[in-house]
Specification:
single chain; 3 helices; mainly alpha; elongated; 55 residues
Length: 55
């Protein structure tokens, strides 16, 4: 698995992911679990959609 996420993209994904998780906890909403996706892609520095669109 080749890394395809840059440093700035990684930071933005981490921030958005954490914000979504916190929002889900505060509002007691399962929708906040979507924040796991950007966090995981930031940690592994790989986005399957980028590969699909050849970015």
């Amino acid at each position: 698995m080749r890394q395809n996420i840059g440093e700035m993209d990684r930071k933005v994904r981490l921030i958005i992911g954490v914000l979504l998780l916190v929002w889900g906890l505060i509002s007691q909403n399962w929708f906040g679990l979507i924040g796991i996706v950007p966090i995981v892609t930031a940690v592994f520095r790989y986005c399957p959609l980028y590969s699909l669109f050849k970015k």
